[in-house]
Amino acid sequence: MLRNHLCFIIFVLLFFVLLFSGYIDKTASPDSSNIRKLLAPPEGVYHSAFPDFGAAEDNVTSERIVEFENLVGKPIVWAYSSNNWIEGIKFPEASVRIIDEEGVIPFIRMMPRSIYEYERGLDPVYTMQRIIDGPFDAELTRWAEAAKRDNLPLIVEFGVEVNIDSFSWNGRWNGGGDTDRYGDPNLPDGPERFRDAYRHIIDLFRAQGIKNISWVFHVNAQG
Q: At 118, is the pLDDT very low, low, confident or very high (cuts 50, 70, 90)?
């Protein structure tokens, strides 16, 4: 089961690398610091993976990266790990450092959940509407500031596999197919709320002048 899951993760990452990988762009910013960001490769794809960082996917160790690379016989471009919000919204500084020290790009997936195990439905803290409304803006801004300060090339996604309803950020739990309680009356409220929550986060980061993050929209191929 784990092997199949890992194969699927690698497949998805290879797909997304067409959009976000390859070269590190170093350009001058207004304050003369270097901007480092992943750019698309001129051709082909890059080998990357989730090298099994535990059940919560956030127990990042250099050993797991090295073991995976030794197993497959080649280095990986990035390592995929989760940023769970169980204890608040915090930049995963230690995990990012470990991955970077192995010469690998950190791929961080923001997981807006306050508990690991729950019945399918809304998270008691991190609903899409609450993210849109702004009570987490200060925490998200500090996350952005930490990412900017490190100035490492990062890949970040919010709300992994949004199209499967086992996650609380799925549209089903955030308004579903209703069209008269939020946003455009011609669009279903649930997907709209996810879209706007993600846009809200990106807007906050852009306001901080973030230039070293490539953002990913990640759906499940089987959803």
A: low
Domains of the chain by start residue, with CATH: 2-216 (3.20.20.80)
Res. 108: pLDDT tops 90? yes
Contact 26, 53 (CB under 8 A): no
pLDDT of residue 35: 58
CA-nearest of 33, 83, 80, 41 to 212 is: 33
